[in-house]
Sequence to fold (47 residues):
Amino acid sequence: MLPVSEETKDKLRKATDVAKTVVHWGFLPLVIYLGMTTGEPRPSLLT
Fold:
């Protein structure tokens, strides 16, 4: 196995943290958006 530097480990850790945050905060809005754009009948936000 190749040796990995501490700098590389830190960058991977930061990238993983960012990805977790994006998935955590973006999953439910994505599901709602997809449901509202592809669902029949289309729900109305105004009524």
Observations:
- Residues 6-38 form the longest helix (33 residues).
- The two ends are 60 Å apart (CA to CA).
- The CA atoms of residues 20 and 26 lie 10 Å apart.
